[in-house]
Amino acid sequence: MSGTEIAAIIAAVAFAILVAVLCVLLSKVMKTITKVNETIDETTQTIVVLKKDVDVLMQEVEGLLTKSNVLLEDVNGKVATIDPLFTAVADLSESVSDLNAQSRNILGRMSSASKKSSKVATVKTMAGAATNILKKRKAKSEEVR
C-alpha cells in the first residue's frame, strides 16, 4: 500500500465518521424541532381556547354592565322621587318644632293670663298663636311648590 492509498483510506474513514456524526446531530435536531412544533401547536390550541373563553366572558360582562346601568338609572329615578318626601319631612319637623315652641309660649301666657285676666284673653292668645303657626306653615308650603 502506498501513501496515497493510506491517505485515501484515512480520508474515507474521516468522511464516514463525519457523516455518522452529522446523522446523529441531524436526528437530535429533528427531534428538537418536532418537540418545538408540538409545543407551538399546543400553544396555538391554548390561544384559540382562551380567545373563545374571553369572547364569552366579554359578552357576559357586557350584559352585566347593561343590567347595572339599567339598575343605576332605576335607583336614580327612585331617589329623585323620594327627594321631595325628605324635603316635606324636614318641613314637617320644622313645623312641629315651631308648634312646640308656640305651645310653650301659649302655656306660659295662659298661666300668666289666667292669673292676670279672664278666660277670654287666654282663648284669644291661643287663637293668635294658632293663626301664626298656620300662616308660617302655609308660607313654607308655597315656597316648596
TrEMBL record:
InterPro entries: UPF0478 (IPR009293). The chain crosses the membrane at residues 6-26. Keywords: Membrane, Transmembrane, Transmembrane helix. This is Uncharacterized protein YoxC, contains an MCP-like domain.
